[in-house]
Design brief:
7 helices
Length: about 160
Amino acid sequence: MQWLRQHGHWPLTVFASFVFVQSLFFKFTGSPETVHIFEHRLDPWAASLGFPGLFAPGGLFSAHVVGSAELLASLLLLTGASVTRLRSLQVLGAALGLGVMSGAIFFHLFTPLGVAVQNNDGSSDGGQLFAMACGVWLSCAALLWLRREVWQRGLAGRAP
């Protein structure tokens, strides 16, 4: 149990950061997969609800905005894991990652995106993106549990 408390955060941090960082290429280069997800699946769905442009380039939840949040979460996770006195950054990164992945899981489950993303050519990712989002969500939740003394101390210090 002592090893888990001291070092168990590393596999969780590395996994979440790896998934976030490897997706940056797709989010920032306008890859066909990303354009399909954000502009051809999610944005028309949002427009049908009265929110056109929400996922389009420049939108509140565009690929660049989501990618930027994922990059920031990765930097916070890795910095907080590496520097003991900055553990609160790891907590912030895990909380941001949990939020971003909660959104991803929601959009996979409750929009036309679906669990298994269908591409323009008719192929499917077989649920790989959804599975990775769930894995990162679980990793971030576990990090928040492992670092609960950090955020609980922070909350107690801010209590009225």
